[in-house]
Amino acid sequence: METNTLEINHKNLYYPPGGILLWIIIFLELITFGVALIALVFSAQSNPQLFHESSGHLNKTIGTFNTIILLASGFIVSNAVHNFKEKNFKKASFQFRMTILGGLFFILLKSIEYSIKIKSDIVLDTNAFFTFYWLLTGFHLIHVVIGLIILYIINRNLKTKTIEDIEASAAFWHMCDLIWLLLFPVLYLIL
């Protein structure tokens, strides 16, 4: 008996896109970043001038382009999920590759930004703001790399994957987008 990998069993414990365990991980990650951002805001209250001046050393242009890249890649991966459901595997595969390309471009821009900071001798222990900056953006970058690995694995032999696999990879990628949407305004614009 052949099973359709595109059908979703709404009574299944794993019904949320990607499965309940993935959503637990996503919520834990969001809580972790949220707590770190709250700690950043409280630290900024003790020395607002230092945090404001330090934030001014960030490249808002690169940060903005990275935001656009992640938002666009999130839109593209959503379309990939839709095309997978429609059994348009060729188009879905192309969209997964475009999402991966966007993620690689994000990493390239982040690497350029990191390189500029290091050449300016702005490192983890420069001050409290940059400790938060390096830890938060570095931890986010690790998530982007993991997300790219997941997308690459999913895109290999795409036709053999289940909808749960596809939705899980997209949900993880959207988590990376969401985390950046929390980090960017606080680090680059507000402080």
Explain this structure to me?
The protein is mainly alpha-helical. It contains six helices and no strands. It has helices at residues 20-46, 48-55, 60-85, 89-119, 128-155, 163-190. The longest helix has 31 residues, at 89-119. The protein is elongated.
Annotate the secondary structure layout:
Blueprint: H1 20-46, H2 48-55, H3 60-85, H4 89-119, H5 128-155, H6 163-190
Helix pairs in contact: 1-2, 1-5, 1-6, 3-4, 3-6, 4-5, 5-6
Shape summary: elongated
Largest sheet: none
Secondary-structure content class: mainly alpha
Strand content: under 5%
Any idea what the radius of gyration is?
19 Å
Run of helices and strands: HHHHHH
Distance between the termini: 59 Å
Concise overview:
The chain has 191 residues and is an all-alpha fold. It is built from 6 helices and no strands.
Descriptive labels:
191 residues; 6 helices; disordered N terminus; mainly alpha
